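We treat protein structure as text, and this decision shapes the records that our systems exchange. This encoding replaces a full spatial description with a residue-level series of whole-number codes. Below, we set out a record of this kind in full and without editing:
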Amino acid sequence: MNSRPAPTSIEGFHHRLQEVSTDLPKRMKQCAEYIAANADRIAVSTVAELAEGAGVQPSAIMRFCQVMGFAGFSEMQRLFRTEFAPGLPDYSTRLLNLRERGAGSPSALLAEFVDAGRTSLENLLHTVDSRVLDESVATLAKARLIHVVGLRRAFPVATYLTYAFEKMEIPAMLHDGMGKLDHRNAITEGDAILAITFAPYSQETVDLALDSVARGHPVVAITDTVMSPLHAPGVLPLSVSEVDFGAFRALSATLSLAITLAVAVGAARDEKL
């Protein structure tokens, strides 16, 4: 059990979570991974609901709270209610009625994904550290060439960023994994890496990013939670957590973060000209 005082801020909570995650047993790690990806739900969920989401017994959630330094779940929930309660979404009656009229219909599915996307966008303001965002923009703006890598689910984001950089005449190279080639030898002095990956993390993306850090290149990451392998020394992590509907997650918040990053980098480069 953790004998240190409980975190007093959301930022402190995530730092503590990252510290303890490496040595947790299997059930505790399940709790950590679920809560890291769904921190916004702590304020409005019961122990039983969190346990069901994490696939563990409620007693495991209680033990996890103690590992994090809290006396119990109520104390941990109080921290998140203080932080998140003012920003909880106000669900419209029309959206609820649409869900009730036709579960599984195209219109109902559209409503569900719009709802999930809206919540993801609202959460983005909490998950992205503005100081890291500023530093990321400055890092990419001064790069000779930006190497963009994101495979599988992250590939649409990587291609969109490369397209946006191209249209703004920002030198960028897309690493697409074609032929199992990672093109790491194309990364030279003065370049920066923009890596995008979400759970279950692309090992190719992680390997390229961490290898680049070891070689002294600056790395910016768009990833999900503090459990991500890209929350690592030498990496500037921009955290985004997409709310899912069923087993599917859209990229609403991720693409919003991507266009923010691209436009901000373009503006920063123009200021230097």
